Amino acid sequence: MLGSKFSPLPDGKIFPFAPWLAPVVQEGTFDPILTDSIFKQQNITIATTVFALGKYTRFLKDFLESAEHNYFVGFRVHYYVFTDQPEQVPAVKLSEEHHLTVLTVPSSNRWQQISLSRMARLEKLIESRLLNEADYIFSLDVDSKFYGRWGVETLSRLVGVMHPWFYDKPRELFTYERRPESQAFIPYAEGDYYYGGAVIGGLVKDVYQLAKTCREQLDIDASKSIEAAWQEESHLNKYFLYNKPSKLLSPEYLWDDTKYKPEEIKIIRFSQVIKNYNEIRPNP
Question: Which of 43, 205, 254, 280 could tie 55 with a disulfide, CB 3.0–4.6 Å?
């Protein structure tokens, strides 16, 4: 069966390496004390972007407060919050080396448009500031919460995360963009994993190339009045098909609070919270 080699092993563990030998980060594959000590010597800064537009501002407090207890604790972190309601950004107490910058952007009456514009805003932020201000970057979904350590074990040149709903499924079930006329098109016979768009990370210069390429492909689609099945996530999956991530994060780093935790997932570190999409999104 296509894609069956990516299913959990019989002993309940996910494969420790991708077929191209990129490590898959999961509980038991790293020593947190050792990895922290190695990266502490490098004096790194991790930029972190979140998009909180419209009613999504309600998730900022839990996101930031849980991050302060779990996310790169002891390392230099700079949060960049994109929002159309800067007055709704909560005053969360940050640790000594953690900082936050609010970036005001226009609102939108379509959640799809908010999603589609993410790559362009990420590209511009990196180009204008982050190439000189940070070493690594993660772009994370704000409607999520940290439940466990997320540290330097996740850092690499280019980082993708296994989608919690597809990590144990054959690839013919992946919800790639299947229309050949879209720049995000992936045939049924191709594909490695289905990557979650809620987590994009890596070295600043490599994420810049990812964002720029995806934005260009999104622009081509838009010029043809095409919108990929899952907006920027579809284009992210296409990019990773031909530009393999150098490190993969197991679903520990992107779970869903609505989903039962199976035996092979030892710990949930970051998870999308339960919400009513019809209530928080500006359109169906």
Answer: 280
